[in-house]
Amino acid sequence: MTTATSTPPLAPPESTPVARPDARPLTNSLTAGKLPRRTPLWVLLGSWLLTGAVFLMLSAAGATDGFNWAGTLFFGSVLFCIMIFALSYFVEGVRKARDRLVTALVSAAFVLALLPLVSLIGTTLVNGLPAFLTPTFFSESQRNVVGAGGGALHAVVGTLLVTGVATLISVPIGLLAALYLTEYGRGRLARGITFFVDVMTGIPSIVAGLFAFAFFSLIFNDPGIRFGFGGAIALSVLMIPVVVRSSEEMLKLVPNELREAAYALGVPKWLTILKVVLPTSVAGIVTGVMISIARVIGETAPLLIISGFTASMNYNLFSERMMTLPVFVYTQYMNQGADFQAYIDRAWAGALTLILIVMVLNGLARLIAKIFSPKLGR
């Protein structure tokens, strides 16, 4: 009996690569070289140092008036975008270079957006701290003060009273209007309210002051009327459309599933709004209210028209003129006396106080939003 032996298949002959005269080396951008992790940071710092050295030499040569920090950061950021693209192009390839260029442009745009804010706060701190730290700035008014001394207590109290009353007027009206537009409003009435709210958002602030002045002048038949409550009404005209638009957008972000779940349990609509919709959107609503306060707390024109200005304390919103911080800054700068530097220092200190009030209000808004926002984690 014979057995058949199987022979292994013959291996195919090895193919020899054919060289082409026009062949180019294959490169893969995903396996190309890679820059060290902190290269962008060092390139950014080097760009700022280089441009800073150039501006320092220009300042030493008298070509510029002092060292230009804003120019250093701006041109340094532009140089950073160019250098990081060039380095990445030669080391990592064109694909990664484009990615780094876009990242650098976004980062440079962020830095450039911060420049005006940092410059404003820095300038206000440098010029306002000398008068801000004096013991009389928050304990005295400007009554019978014609030179150095005195303070801005009357302006701080007036700002808090006028802005507080304007907030008490604007927030309920604006929030209820936003609830109507979101939950109930349909048809021409809702479209008309939305249209007029959009129009009111863009009106100049001085128009609100003229409206309040004309309104109370006709009611009290007094063409020279000036009092704090009129300033609160003027500010509320500016606040209401901001509150309406911001609250409306926050209420629209509440998922409809939450409303439908409440309706399925038999909860009436008003209670659903009170217990489900508002608690879910409270963080955004509070933020919108703080934005509206920051929008009006620095207004000068309407308060100058209807609230007027005075150097004395006034706690009564319904009687006599009332000073506010924006008007205080304006009058101190425009009506300088013999000791002009004291007036300028008080103007800068008033501006610094206004910035600090807005910062405190925003901090309180974040705290309130964190406390009252719904807790999603378990």
UniProtKB/TrEMBL annotation:
Keywords, sorted A to Z: Cell membrane, Membrane, Phosphate transport, Transmembrane, Transmembrane helix, Transport
Region (Disordered) residue spans: 1-31
Superkingdom of origin: Bacteria
Matches recorded under SUPFAM superfamilies: MetI-like (SSF161098)
One cellular component term from this protein's GO annotations in UniProt: plasma membrane
Transmembrane segments annotated in the record for this chain: 41-63, 69-90, 102-133, 153-181, 193-219, 225-244, 276-297, 347-369
Compartment(s) where it occurs, according to its Swiss-Prot or TrEMBL record: Cell membrane
Main location: membrane
Stored Pfam families: BPD_transp_1 (PF00528)
Membrane topology: Multi-pass membrane protein
GO process terms (BP): phosphate ion transmembrane transport
GO molecular function: phosphate transmembrane transporter activity
UniProt domain ABC transmembrane type-1: residue ranges: 156-365
Signal peptide: none
Keyword Transport: yes
Keyword Cytoplasm tagged: no
Family named by the database record: Belongs to the binding-protein-dependent transport system permease family. CysTW subfamily.
Function: Part of the binding-protein-dependent transport system for phosphate; probably responsible for the translocation of the substrate across the membrane.
Name by which UniProt lists this protein: Phosphate transport system permease protein PstA
